[in-house]
Amino acid sequence: MVGRETDVMVLGAGIVGLGIALKLQEKGRGVTLIDREEAGSQTSFGNAGIIERASFLPYAFPRDLGELLTYAMNSRTDAHYHWNALLTVAPWLARYWWNSAPSRYQRAVMGAKPLIENCLSEHEPLIAAAGAEHLIRRTGWLKAYRSEKKAKAAIADAEKLRTFGVTAEILDKATLAEREPHLADGVIGAIHYKDPANVSDPQGLSLAYRALFEKRGGVFLHGDARTLSADGAGWRVETAAGSVRARDVVLALGPWAQEFVRQFGYDLPMGVKRGYHMHYHTTGNAILNHTVFDADHSYVLAPMANGVRLTTGAEFAHRDAPPTPVQLERLEPKAKKFFPLADRVDPKPWMGSRPCTGDMLPFIGEAPRHKGLWFAFGHAHHGLTMSAVTGRLVAEMITGETPFTDPTPYRVDRF
User: Fold this and answer.
1) Nearest alpha-carbon partner for 310 in 282, 284, 290, 280
2) Cα dihedral angle (210, 214, 219, 220), rounded to 10 degrees?
3) Which of 126-141 are b and which e, b meaning 16 or more Cβ less than 10 Å from the residue's Cβ?
């Protein structure tokens, strides 16, 4: 017996699912949002808090043999892997490596371009309507470096990004010291990317979006996506409040999506990059004014509501394997030399998983063999960044409007 009828169900209340639900409401659709947990409490909880309007160059798989050998040693700070996971992740990593070749990498750049270009402009009205301006800092972020070699590489990237209209200011040591007087450890300069916006509490933004969704008449229910089943011309899911039925259902399940869609016959080349964060008090009167990426050791320090957040690079492991915060332990002493961090705030490191595809682009679109089943996942490190613009694209496709950009690069059957 169906207990509730709605136009669209969105499965997954992370920041991507929330963006989709809100944009569907703007198109006049009734939406029920379903998740086992609180909104934004899983993958969307932990990140550097950047709506990354400057990230037009996806992170490619290294292709230099010497660099690959250093990764194989498993002692770097930017990446770590579990030996017992290598066979599992190998097919995805092989595609990732293949699509990182220069000729194919350009497809990823151009595919991501319309999503990055519109990421902040699609968030802005939601932030305003949700009353979440107090969570936003419009200070951009800094890419700091210690050597001329790193400086040359950073400046070259900045020049490439300027061709996309990105605002990038090159800071010498003195100018950087004026903006971030408490950085130390031999920093000689930085690139200041000014276009991105910063979020001081990523889950706080998710909760503000949930409140806006409910204010607009949306319904949030606790339920398990694994109960999804076809029901006539639509779909049904069981929730704590009973069954819900809709003509369309959107899967915004992040790192759980790959295994979920196998039940419908879709074997997608995906993997996860696990990551960790920890918050810190600061020593004395030290203040971090910007989010800062340490280019020499590949970690981010971000001023957050709960302290300064240190976020690590990627860990390649089984999604549900016990946490192994090796990178955090390696990075903490380096970060304390870089900026005067004091005691840890959190009782233990947070760990989450990023859903990554084999070509660095998300899956956005209708399932080829199932009418009314829509995919919206695989955003890697850019779930927060691309959530609202993904919502716009999904909403336009579901309502039959002409999409603002060609969705072909994100089609489900592209592999």
Assistant:
1) 280
2) 30
3) bbeebebeebbbebbb
The two three-digit tokens of residue 332, written as one number: 């903490």
pTM assigned to the model: 0.96
Domain 1-60+100-135+198-269+358-415: CATH class, spelled out: alpha beta
Alpha-carbon span 51 to 65, nearest angstrom: 33
Write down the domain spans for the chain.
1-60+100-135+198-269+358-415
pLDDT tens, the chain, 415 aa long: 458 999 999 999 999 999 999 999 999 999 999 999 999 999 999 999 999 999 999 999 988 888 888 888 898 989 999 999 998 899 999 999 999 999 999 999 999 999 999 999 999 999 999 999 999 999 999 999 999 999 999 999 999 999 999 999 999 999 999 999 999 889 999 999 999 999 999 999 999 999 999 999 999 999 999 999 999 999 999 999 999 999 999 999 999 999 999 999 999 999 999 999 999 999 999 999 999 999 999 999 999 999 999 999 999 999 999 999 999 999 999 999 999 999 999 999 999 999 999 999 999 999 999 999 999 999 999 999 999 999 999 999 999 999 999 999 999 999 9
Question: Cα 222 from chain centroid?
Answer: 23
Q: Shortest CA distance to 322 belongs to which of 2, 147, 84, 96? A: 84
Structure tokens at 92: 């995805």
- CB neighbourhood size of 57 (10 A): 16
- Of the candidates 325, 272, 352, the one whose C-alpha atom is nearest the C-alpha of residue 48 is 352
